[in-house]
Amino acid sequence: MIILHFGVLQMYTTSPTISNLHGVMGVFVFLACFAAWAVANNSHPGKITAQSFRRYDHYPYDHLMFQSNVICQTTKLFKIPRSKFDRIKYNCIVPRYDHMCGWTHNTYGEENYRWFLIFLLNHVIMCFYGTYICYRLFYEEIKMKRLMDLAFFDRLTGETIKANYHIIFQYVFARRSLEVTFMLVTFVMGIALSCFLGYHVYITSRGQTTNENSKWGDIEGWYKKQQQQYRTAVQAGKDITKQSSKRNNSNNEDVSTDNTTILDEDVVDPGPIPKNIYDRGFVENWKDVFFPLSLRKDAHSRGGYTKESIAKQKQQASQRVENSSTTMRSSSVHTTESSPKNEQSSTTTRCSKPKDV
Q: Which whole number is the average pLDDT over 116-139?
Protein backbone atom coordinates (compact mmCIF):
# COMPACT_ATOMS: atom_id res chain seq x y z
CA MET A 1 0.00 0.00 0.00
CA ILE A 2 2.86 2.38 0.79
CA ILE A 3 4.56 1.64 -2.56
CA LEU A 4 1.28 2.16 -4.41
CA HIS A 5 0.66 5.37 -2.51
CA PHE A 6 3.98 6.94 -3.43
CA GLY A 7 3.69 5.58 -6.97
CA VAL A 8 0.48 7.53 -7.43
CA LEU A 9 2.11 10.55 -5.75
CA GLN A 10 4.83 10.49 -8.40
CA MET A 11 2.21 10.18 -11.09
CA TYR A 12 0.12 13.19 -10.13
CA THR A 13 3.03 15.43 -9.11
CA THR A 14 4.16 15.25 -12.76
CA SER A 15 0.65 15.59 -14.18
CA PRO A 16 -0.21 18.99 -15.71
CA THR A 17 -3.87 18.59 -14.74
CA ILE A 18 -3.33 18.06 -11.01
CA SER A 19 -2.04 20.78 -8.72
CA ASN A 20 1.33 20.18 -7.09
CA LEU A 21 -0.38 20.98 -3.80
CA HIS A 22 -1.80 17.46 -3.82
CA GLY A 23 1.74 16.11 -3.72
CA VAL A 24 2.22 17.79 -0.35
CA MET A 25 -1.30 16.90 0.79
CA GLY A 26 -0.75 13.25 -0.08
CA VAL A 27 2.39 13.08 2.03
CA PHE A 28 0.62 14.86 4.89
CA VAL A 29 -2.34 12.44 4.79
CA PHE A 30 -0.01 9.45 4.76
CA LEU A 31 2.04 10.74 7.70
CA ALA A 32 -1.15 11.56 9.61
CA CYS A 33 -2.33 7.96 9.16
CA PHE A 34 1.01 6.58 10.30
CA ALA A 35 0.98 8.88 13.35
CA ALA A 36 -2.60 7.83 14.19
CA TRP A 37 -1.57 4.18 14.02
CA ALA A 38 1.48 4.80 16.24
CA VAL A 39 -0.61 6.59 18.88
CA ALA A 40 -3.35 3.95 18.78
CA ASN A 41 -0.75 1.19 19.05
CA ASN A 42 1.06 2.69 22.04
CA SER A 43 -1.91 4.11 23.97
CA HIS A 44 -3.03 2.45 27.22
CA PRO A 45 -6.68 1.64 28.00
CA GLY A 46 -6.29 2.10 31.74
CA LYS A 47 -5.55 -0.42 34.47
CA ILE A 48 -7.73 -1.16 37.49
CA THR A 49 -5.68 -1.95 40.57
CA ALA A 50 -6.22 -1.62 44.31
CA GLN A 51 -4.60 1.82 44.13
CA SER A 52 -6.52 3.08 41.06
CA PHE A 53 -9.86 1.51 42.02
CA ARG A 54 -11.66 4.76 42.92
CA ARG A 55 -10.42 6.51 39.81
CA TYR A 56 -12.44 4.22 37.54
CA ASP A 57 -15.45 3.61 39.79
CA HIS A 58 -18.01 5.91 38.16
CA TYR A 59 -20.64 3.64 36.56
CA PRO A 60 -23.52 1.97 38.43
CA TYR A 61 -24.30 -1.73 38.19
CA ASP A 62 -27.16 -2.55 35.82
CA HIS A 63 -27.66 -6.01 37.42
CA LEU A 64 -28.14 -7.35 33.93
CA MET A 65 -24.73 -7.53 32.28
CA PHE A 66 -22.77 -6.44 35.34
CA GLN A 67 -23.53 -7.74 38.83
CA SER A 68 -22.38 -6.27 42.14
CA ASN A 69 -20.01 -8.00 44.57
CA VAL A 70 -18.38 -10.12 41.85
CA ILE A 71 -14.67 -10.69 42.41
CA CYS A 72 -12.15 -11.23 39.61
CA GLN A 73 -10.61 -14.64 40.18
CA THR A 74 -7.24 -13.47 38.81
CA THR A 75 -6.73 -10.08 40.47
CA LYS A 76 -9.01 -10.70 43.50
CA LEU A 77 -10.55 -7.24 42.99
CA PHE A 78 -14.21 -6.36 42.69
CA LYS A 79 -15.29 -6.07 39.07
CA ILE A 80 -16.23 -2.50 38.27
CA PRO A 81 -19.21 -2.08 35.91
CA ARG A 82 -18.27 -2.13 32.20
CA SER A 83 -14.81 -3.56 32.96
CA LYS A 84 -13.33 -6.83 31.74
CA PHE A 85 -10.13 -8.77 32.33
CA ASP A 86 -7.76 -8.56 29.36
CA ARG A 87 -5.92 -11.86 28.91
CA ILE A 88 -4.25 -11.02 25.60
CA LYS A 89 -1.96 -8.04 26.15
CA TYR A 90 -2.12 -6.29 29.53
CA ASN A 91 -3.22 -9.16 31.79
CA CYS A 92 -5.29 -6.80 33.96
CA ILE A 93 -8.83 -5.50 34.40
CA VAL A 94 -9.48 -2.86 31.73
CA PRO A 95 -12.07 -0.13 32.55
CA ARG A 96 -14.92 0.34 30.06
CA TYR A 97 -13.50 -2.51 27.98
CA ASP A 98 -14.29 -2.27 24.27
CA HIS A 99 -12.29 -4.77 22.21
CA MET A 100 -8.88 -6.09 21.19
CA CYS A 101 -7.76 -4.85 17.75
CA GLY A 102 -5.51 -7.03 15.62
CA TRP A 103 -4.62 -4.17 13.25
CA THR A 104 -2.89 -2.20 15.97
CA HIS A 105 -2.29 -5.12 18.37
CA ASN A 106 -3.74 -3.21 21.28
CA THR A 107 -6.64 -3.44 23.70
CA TYR A 108 -9.04 -0.50 23.78
CA GLY A 109 -10.90 0.70 26.83
CA GLU A 110 -11.86 3.87 28.65
CA GLU A 111 -8.68 5.90 28.19
CA ASN A 112 -7.65 5.03 24.61
CA TYR A 113 -10.83 4.20 22.68
CA ARG A 114 -10.78 7.75 21.25
CA TRP A 115 -7.42 7.08 19.59
CA PHE A 116 -8.85 4.01 17.88
CA LEU A 117 -11.70 6.09 16.42
CA ILE A 118 -9.23 8.73 15.20
CA PHE A 119 -7.12 5.93 13.68
CA LEU A 120 -10.15 4.68 11.74
CA LEU A 121 -11.17 8.16 10.63
CA ASN A 122 -7.68 8.96 9.33
CA HIS A 123 -7.57 5.81 7.23
CA VAL A 124 -11.05 6.41 5.83
CA ILE A 125 -9.91 9.86 4.72
CA MET A 126 -6.69 8.46 3.19
CA CYS A 127 -8.54 5.78 1.22
CA PHE A 128 -11.11 8.13 -0.27
CA TYR A 129 -8.49 10.81 -0.91
CA GLY A 130 -6.41 8.31 -2.90
CA THR A 131 -9.54 7.23 -4.80
CA TYR A 132 -10.39 10.84 -5.63
CA ILE A 133 -6.91 11.65 -6.93
CA CYS A 134 -6.86 8.58 -9.17
CA TYR A 135 -10.31 9.41 -10.49
CA ARG A 136 -9.22 12.96 -11.30
CA LEU A 137 -6.17 11.66 -13.15
CA PHE A 138 -8.14 9.22 -15.27
CA TYR A 139 -10.91 11.73 -15.94
CA GLU A 140 -8.49 14.42 -17.10
CA GLU A 141 -6.61 11.94 -19.28
CA ILE A 142 -9.84 10.76 -20.92
CA LYS A 143 -10.92 14.35 -21.42
CA MET A 144 -7.60 15.57 -22.85
CA LYS A 145 -7.28 12.64 -25.28
CA ARG A 146 -11.00 12.79 -26.13
CA LEU A 147 -11.23 9.05 -25.73
CA MET A 148 -15.03 9.07 -25.58
CA ASP A 149 -15.14 10.52 -29.13
CA LEU A 150 -12.89 7.86 -30.63
CA ALA A 151 -13.68 4.54 -32.26
CA PHE A 152 -11.74 1.41 -31.40
CA PHE A 153 -10.82 -1.40 -33.79
CA ASP A 154 -11.31 -5.00 -32.64
CA ARG A 155 -8.51 -7.11 -34.16
CA LEU A 156 -10.33 -10.38 -33.52
CA THR A 157 -13.60 -9.52 -35.23
CA GLY A 158 -12.42 -6.70 -37.47
CA GLU A 159 -15.24 -4.51 -36.22
CA THR A 160 -15.05 -0.84 -35.39
CA ILE A 161 -16.51 -0.21 -31.94
CA LYS A 162 -17.68 3.16 -30.69
CA ALA A 163 -16.18 4.19 -27.35
CA ASN A 164 -18.11 3.31 -24.20
CA TYR A 165 -17.26 3.10 -20.51
CA HIS A 166 -16.37 -0.58 -20.72
CA ILE A 167 -13.95 -0.02 -23.60
CA ILE A 168 -12.45 3.05 -21.95
CA PHE A 169 -11.90 1.11 -18.71
CA GLN A 170 -10.06 -1.64 -20.61
CA TYR A 171 -7.96 0.96 -22.39
CA VAL A 172 -7.02 2.79 -19.19
CA PHE A 173 -6.40 -0.43 -17.24
CA ALA A 174 -4.05 -1.72 -19.95
CA ARG A 175 -1.92 1.42 -19.70
CA ARG A 176 -2.40 2.34 -16.02
CA SER A 177 -2.85 -1.04 -14.35
CA LEU A 178 -0.98 -0.05 -11.16
CA GLU A 179 -2.96 3.15 -10.70
CA VAL A 180 -6.31 1.50 -11.50
CA THR A 181 -5.58 -1.27 -9.00
CA PHE A 182 -4.67 1.33 -6.40
CA MET A 183 -7.94 3.20 -6.99
CA LEU A 184 -10.03 0.04 -6.71
CA VAL A 185 -8.25 -1.09 -3.54
CA THR A 186 -8.58 2.29 -1.83
CA PHE A 187 -12.23 2.56 -2.85
CA VAL A 188 -13.15 -0.88 -1.50
CA MET A 189 -11.11 -0.39 1.67
CA GLY A 190 -12.63 3.05 2.13
CA ILE A 191 -16.13 1.57 2.04
CA ALA A 192 -15.19 -1.25 4.42
CA LEU A 193 -13.54 1.12 6.91
CA SER A 194 -16.46 3.55 6.64
CA CYS A 195 -18.88 0.78 7.58
CA PHE A 196 -16.66 -0.22 10.48
CA LEU A 197 -16.34 3.39 11.66
CA GLY A 198 -20.09 3.84 11.25
CA TYR A 199 -20.70 0.84 13.50
CA HIS A 200 -18.52 2.33 16.24
CA VAL A 201 -20.19 5.73 15.86
CA TYR A 202 -23.57 4.01 16.20
CA ILE A 203 -22.79 2.04 19.36
CA THR A 204 -20.97 4.99 20.94
CA SER A 205 -23.98 7.23 20.32
CA ARG A 206 -26.12 4.62 22.11
CA GLY A 207 -23.79 4.45 25.11
CA GLN A 208 -22.45 0.98 24.35
CA THR A 209 -19.06 -0.63 23.85
CA THR A 210 -18.30 -3.40 21.37
CA ASN A 211 -18.28 -5.86 24.26
CA GLU A 212 -21.64 -4.63 25.56
CA ASN A 213 -23.23 -4.46 22.11
CA SER A 214 -22.74 -8.18 21.60
CA LYS A 215 -24.27 -8.85 25.03
CA TRP A 216 -27.23 -6.60 24.29
CA GLY A 217 -27.85 -8.64 21.15
CA ASP A 218 -28.16 -11.76 23.31
CA ILE A 219 -30.38 -9.98 25.84
CA GLU A 220 -32.76 -8.54 23.24
CA GLY A 221 -32.88 -11.87 21.43
CA TRP A 222 -33.81 -13.67 24.65
CA TYR A 223 -36.54 -11.14 25.51
CA LYS A 224 -38.05 -11.27 22.02
CA LYS A 225 -38.07 -15.06 22.08
CA GLN A 226 -39.76 -15.15 25.49
CA GLN A 227 -42.28 -12.50 24.44
CA GLN A 228 -43.19 -14.54 21.37
CA GLN A 229 -43.59 -17.69 23.45
CA TYR A 230 -45.72 -15.75 25.93
CA ARG A 231 -48.03 -14.41 23.21
CA THR A 232 -48.37 -17.89 21.73
CA ALA A 233 -49.23 -19.32 25.14
CA VAL A 234 -51.82 -16.59 25.77
CA GLN A 235 -53.50 -17.32 22.46
CA ALA A 236 -53.52 -21.05 23.27
CA GLY A 237 -55.05 -20.38 26.70
CA LYS A 238 -52.25 -22.01 28.69
CA ASP A 239 -51.56 -21.39 32.39
CA ILE A 240 -48.56 -19.11 32.53
CA THR A 241 -46.52 -17.12 34.99
CA LYS A 242 -46.91 -13.38 34.64
CA GLN A 243 -43.31 -12.45 35.18
CA SER A 244 -40.10 -13.98 36.45
CA SER A 245 -36.88 -12.46 37.70
CA LYS A 246 -34.92 -15.71 37.64
CA ARG A 247 -31.88 -15.00 35.54
CA ASN A 248 -28.33 -16.17 35.56
CA ASN A 249 -26.66 -13.49 37.67
CA SER A 250 -23.72 -15.57 38.81
CA ASN A 251 -21.15 -13.43 37.03
CA ASN A 252 -20.79 -10.53 34.67
CA GLU A 253 -18.85 -12.30 31.96
CA ASP A 254 -21.72 -13.47 29.80
CA VAL A 255 -25.51 -13.26 29.72
CA SER A 256 -26.94 -16.69 29.09
CA THR A 257 -29.78 -17.13 26.61
CA ASP A 258 -30.43 -20.77 27.48
CA ASN A 259 -33.93 -21.14 28.91
CA THR A 260 -32.86 -24.01 31.16
CA THR A 261 -30.36 -21.79 32.97
CA ILE A 262 -32.51 -18.68 33.12
CA LEU A 263 -36.02 -19.87 33.89
CA ASP A 264 -37.69 -22.73 35.75
CA GLU A 265 -40.96 -22.14 33.91
CA ASP A 266 -41.45 -23.10 30.28
CA VAL A 267 -43.50 -20.00 29.50
CA VAL A 268 -43.13 -16.65 31.24
CA ASP A 269 -43.92 -13.01 30.62
CA PRO A 270 -40.45 -11.40 30.53
CA GLY A 271 -41.85 -7.88 30.54
CA PRO A 272 -40.46 -5.10 28.33
CA ILE A 273 -36.88 -5.12 27.10
CA PRO A 274 -34.79 -3.25 29.72
CA LYS A 275 -33.15 0.04 28.83
CA ASN A 276 -29.43 0.67 28.75
CA ILE A 277 -28.65 2.69 31.87
CA TYR A 278 -25.26 3.67 30.43
CA ASP A 279 -26.88 5.61 27.59
CA ARG A 280 -26.68 9.17 28.94
CA GLY A 281 -27.54 10.92 25.68
CA PHE A 282 -25.62 11.63 22.48
CA VAL A 283 -23.47 14.48 23.79
CA GLU A 284 -22.58 12.88 27.14
CA ASN A 285 -21.79 9.54 25.49
CA TRP A 286 -19.26 11.18 23.19
CA LYS A 287 -17.83 13.27 26.01
CA ASP A 288 -17.14 10.05 27.91
CA VAL A 289 -15.10 8.83 24.92
CA PHE A 290 -13.03 11.91 24.10
CA PHE A 291 -12.85 13.19 27.68
CA PRO A 292 -12.71 9.99 29.77
CA LEU A 293 -14.17 10.25 33.25
CA SER A 294 -11.05 8.71 34.77
CA LEU A 295 -8.86 11.51 33.37
CA ARG A 296 -10.97 14.38 34.69
CA LYS A 297 -10.05 16.34 37.80
CA ASP A 298 -12.97 15.01 39.83
CA ALA A 299 -12.23 11.36 38.99
CA HIS A 300 -11.51 10.38 42.61
CA SER A 301 -14.51 12.16 44.13
CA ARG A 302 -17.15 11.08 41.59
CA GLY A 303 -19.33 7.95 41.65
CA GLY A 304 -18.23 5.35 44.14
CA TYR A 305 -20.89 2.82 43.16
CA THR A 306 -18.67 -0.14 43.88
CA LYS A 307 -17.47 1.60 47.04
CA GLU A 308 -21.05 1.81 48.29
CA SER A 309 -21.62 -1.85 47.48
CA ILE A 310 -18.46 -2.85 49.33
CA ALA A 311 -19.36 -0.64 52.30
CA LYS A 312 -22.76 -2.32 52.51
CA GLN A 313 -21.14 -5.72 52.35
CA LYS A 314 -18.67 -4.65 55.04
CA GLN A 315 -21.52 -3.45 57.24
CA GLN A 316 -23.31 -6.77 56.84
CA ALA A 317 -20.11 -8.61 57.71
CA SER A 318 -19.66 -6.47 60.83
CA GLN A 319 -23.24 -7.24 61.83
CA ARG A 320 -22.56 -10.94 61.47
CA VAL A 321 -19.45 -10.57 63.64
CA GLU A 322 -21.45 -8.72 66.29
CA ASN A 323 -24.20 -11.34 66.25
CA SER A 324 -21.63 -14.09 66.47
CA SER A 325 -19.92 -12.39 69.42
CA THR A 326 -23.26 -12.00 71.23
CA THR A 327 -24.00 -15.67 70.73
CA MET A 328 -20.57 -16.63 72.03
CA ARG A 329 -20.97 -14.46 75.16
CA SER A 330 -24.36 -16.02 75.86
CA SER A 331 -23.03 -19.53 75.50
CA SER A 332 -19.99 -18.79 77.70
CA VAL A 333 -22.33 -18.44 80.71
CA HIS A 334 -23.21 -22.13 80.42
CA THR A 335 -19.90 -23.52 79.19
CA THR A 336 -16.23 -22.61 79.41
CA GLU A 337 -15.36 -24.08 76.03
CA SER A 338 -16.12 -22.20 72.81
CA SER A 339 -18.49 -23.80 70.36
CA PRO A 340 -16.89 -25.05 67.10
CA LYS A 341 -19.90 -23.69 65.25
CA ASN A 342 -19.25 -20.18 66.58
CA GLU A 343 -15.57 -20.43 65.69
CA GLN A 344 -16.49 -21.34 62.14
CA SER A 345 -18.96 -18.46 61.97
CA SER A 346 -16.37 -15.95 63.14
CA THR A 347 -13.88 -17.05 60.51
CA THR A 348 -16.24 -16.57 57.59
CA THR A 349 -17.02 -12.91 58.15
CA ARG A 350 -14.09 -11.35 56.35
CA CYS A 351 -14.85 -9.34 53.27
CA SER A 352 -12.49 -9.11 50.32
CA LYS A 353 -12.07 -5.54 49.13
CA PRO A 354 -9.53 -3.26 47.45
CA LYS A 355 -6.90 -1.86 49.78
CA ASP A 356 -7.97 1.75 49.32
CA VAL A 357 -11.67 1.32 50.13
A: 91
